[in-house]
Amino acid sequence: MTGFVATNAASSGVKIDKKQLKAIARRSDRPGIVYLVQWGLSLGATATLVWLALDTWWLWPAMFLHGVFLTVPSYSFSHETAHGTAFRTRWLNEVVFWLTSLLYMEEPLRRRYTHTNHHTYTWHTNKDSQMPFDTPMDFKGWLIEVSGLALLRFHASHLPKLACGRYSDVVRSVTPESELAKMTRNARIFLAVYGAIAGLIIADVTWPLWFLVLPRLLGGPVMMLFTLIQHVEMQEDSPSILESTRSFKTTWLGRFLYMNMNNHVEHHLYPQVPFYGLEALGEAVADQLPDPDPGVIRTNVEVLSVVIRRSLGMSTKAATIRQAPHMITEGGFERVAQRSVR
Fold this sequence. Notes:
This protein is an all-alpha fold. It contains 16 helices and no strands. The chain has one domain (26-231, 243-327). Helix 4 crosses helix 6 and helix 4 crosses helix 11. The longest helix has 25 residues, at 29-53.
């Protein structure tokens, strides 16, 4: 792409004092360890609810709750450690990165390098390797995305390919050659772990079903609702993060589960800032940013309303969330981009 400039604060016209940014971006092990302990205690509590609910109809809501606390932070922590910002100590960051990627179900090095590409080419057609859905989105696309089926299908197809040393053009284009063999090794270990879990269930050892497999499936849609609104309805092929990316409000629980990634514009502007510095970063550059969209539930309801009306050929103007101008139509629509996660 001739004259392309990497998508970040500079390309978006956002500025912050260098000393202030350095202080906000300073890394420490303590916040990550505190979060890890809090997450572990939360999982212990929700797993206890699942155990108490065994053999009752309360099992399904208990597994759903456990699944939310399992899936959303596994995505969030895997994302943060992919950036290398969760901990100051590198080996600690890498261990947590590997384990949370195992829960999230994506080989960690593929996750890291495609995500680096996503930051360089944020929401750029045929460049961003992490565009998970077609744009503009219709109701069918929304349903497949939010169900988590598209992501699970992607993981199920790519892990065996990586394990066999078959690398897609996307993977080869973003990954250093020296990392490909490591990617294959990791994929084989992941498949062995998943195979062992399946073997236990087949052998009538049911605890992985109640505490891992079904909660992962039940909590997946909540994870997808958080991630969907990062870029949906936003502008493709823009150098400005302010146009391609959305921040949104949420509660203390949402901030905990999502590791403050609701400050998503801020994260894309300065990806070197750890999760525990994003709120301070948001305050520091607030006068240069658009207001965050309403709470995660309200934003998702608005997106759902838009995609339903788009599929019915009705007006797609949203009432409360930001949209790129071409997303607002009164009738039919034309595809701008196809998903790159395939």
